[in-house]
Amino acid sequence: AENVIEKDTVIIGSGPGGYVAAIRASELGQDVAIIEKSDTVGGVCLNVGCVPSKALITAGHRLQQAKDSSTYGISTSDAVIDFTKTQAWKDEKVVARMTNGVQMLLKKHHVELINGEAYLDSDTQLRIMPSGERQFMDNGGGQTIKFKNLILATGSRPIEIRGFKFQDRVIDSTGGLNLKEVPKEFVIIGGGYVGTELAGAYADLGSHVTILEGSPNIIPNFEKDMVSIVKKNLEKKGVTIITNAMAKSSEQKADSVDVTYEVDGKPSTITADYCMVTVGRRPNTDNFGLEMTNVKTNDRGLVEVDEQGKTSVDHIYAIGDITPGPALAHKAFFEAKTVAGAISGKNTANDYIGVPAVCFTDPELASVGLTEKDAKDKGIEVKTAKFPFAGNARAVSLDAAEGFVKLIAQKDTGTLLGGQIVGPGASDLISELSVAINCQLNAEDIALTIHPHPTLGEPIQEAADILIGYPTHI
Ligand code: FAD
User: Fold this and answer.
1) If you placed Cys at 463, which of 69, 332, 387, 455 could pair as Cys (CB 3.0 to 4.6 Å)?
2) Are 325 and 351 in contact (CB under 8 A)?
3) SS3 of residue 370 by DSSP
4) Is residue 325 annotated as involved in ligand binding?
5) What is the helix (H) or strand (E) element at residue 395, kind and residue range?
6) Whether the Cβ atoms of residue 393 and residue 329 lie closer than 8 Å to each other
7) CA nearest 343: which of 47, 65, 10, 109?
8) Residue nearest to atom 9 of ligand 1 (CA)
9) ipTM topping 0.95
10) pLDDT tens digits, 391-424
11) Ligand 1 in contact with 212 (CB < 6 A)?
């Protein structure tokens, strides 16, 4: 048929998984097409995830600094925010700049970008429809592509919960990032990464935020002694944190929303300007014809893959949020490179030993490898060391001497198994520990590496000094 094209490698989705797979596959000599249904490339991360959320966090920090720098002898006149301008900066100078950059990179690498929605017909062929026109598919419309290799990178979408249908004032994270005004009262259901980061940002921007978290702790994937520092700071910003809170129902009014929740079976209602639900994400594996293939998904709808990212069909691969493991952009980047290599005949494999987790709270949280508890649960004998930022000159001079670095090493060999950082710059500092763990360095390797002074990286070396038995500044 005239409307059929053939391609070596086709990728569905241009998020961190898809676009990186496209670039790498092209570098390795493949003829690559990438299909994206959205108007812009970059997926959730660049458009409505990692990047815009960090921009709002920055704006919040700037406002707070502008409002109060009296500690440093700086008096400022009343700082006010024009949130329309804040949002325009985020959209045009941050998000658009990054997505345009990715589009340029795809072009530079001769990747064919096809705008439209992909729908699988079989293990070897798919159809592309203009976005939102899938209903015409039964008439055989659209363009057919036959592929040798297919990489699924369709990502994930927010979960909706009962009683909280998304509408004007009951919003998901995308709505939360794109608000036109700073809410006076903002209820956030779900105190995971996304909820807690945005809680901090909006509190800094002027909202009274209430976090309703169903479990006993916010950001439960980080250790308690780390989270308690963040929690204290959120409360200092005026955030109300209600744990063990079950969100029950919402009632949207003309210009507000009533949010009802229960703690120990006792109901309460908060009237808010907006209620954002950030309780997790579900993989996009149920809406593009995956059932027409032999690709297997598990009971959570995730695509099962081997260590090369291969699905149950030999020439179909999957990466990013639709595969098991943490739903993080850098996990998707990594898997993308593995899969592109595998398709090109390289001996690549995913190894998750050094995958860091970061949360952009105040202060930031970061973790890589095992925690002390993980090690105990695995029956590994470890030694640990903790060094506080209070003992670090750079942190003190930044007026940010809060938090600590903790290292976990194998007891007999000193091999580093894990590290956690809560404190200024944790998101950047964790990379040193990722390298250390990935390369199976030991505490002595870190202790004997000269770290520049005065810098926030020194507490890592100080903790290593403790591990080898010769603490310096403690
Ligand atoms: P996605 O980014 O979801 O991209 C999938 C793409 O596929 C989309 O562009 C979609 O339009 C397209 N698509 C889907 N189906 C089709 C189809 N049938 N046809 C054509 N195109 C299709 N992670 C971090 O590591 N750090 C952070 O700080 C961070 N912050 C976040 C903040 C928020 C508010 C959110 C929501 C997420 C955040 N994440 C963060 C998670 C991160 O965004 C995801 O892990 C990452 O985007 C996953 O990449 P992906 O390539 O798997 O999929």
Assistant:
1) 387
2) no
3) coil
4) no
5) helix 393-397
6) no
7) 10
8) 43
9) yes
10) 999 999 999 999 999 999 999 999 999 999 999 9
11) no
Tens-digit pLDDT profile for residues 312-365? 999 999 999 999 999 999 999 999 999 999 999 999 999 999 899 999 999 999
The 10s digit of each residue's pLDDT in 76-87 is 878 999 999 999
Tokens (6 digits) for 257:
């929303």
Alpha carbon nearest to ligand 1 atom 15, residue: 154
Rg (CA), the chain: 24
* Token digits of residue 358: 């970061």
Position 26 pLDDT exceeds 80 = yes
Tell me if 238 is assigned to a ligand binding site: no
- To the question of pTM greater than 0.90 for the whole model, the response is yes
Question: What are the CA-CA distances from residue 192 to residues 158, 268, 352, 359, 392 (Å)?
Answer: 13, 22, 22, 9, 29
Residues 259-267 have a mean pLDDT of: 98
Give the C-alpha separation, 366 to 357, whole Å: 6
What distance in angstroms lies between residue 173's CA and the mean position of ligand 1's atoms? Answer: 12
Residue 2: the pLDDT is 58
- Residue 192 CB–ligand 1 contact under 6 Å: no
H helices present in 292-350, as ranges: 329-343
143, two tokens: 């363009």
How far apart are alpha carbons 40 and 24 in whole angstroms? Answer: 20
Classify residue 389 by its DSSP letter. G
Strands 208-212 and 185-189: parallel
Q: Please count the residues of the chain.
A: 474
Ligand 1, atom 7: closest residue by C-alpha: 13
Q: Is 188 helix (H, G, I), strand (E, B) or coil?
A: strand
Confidence of residue 3 (pLDDT cuts 50, 70, 90): confident
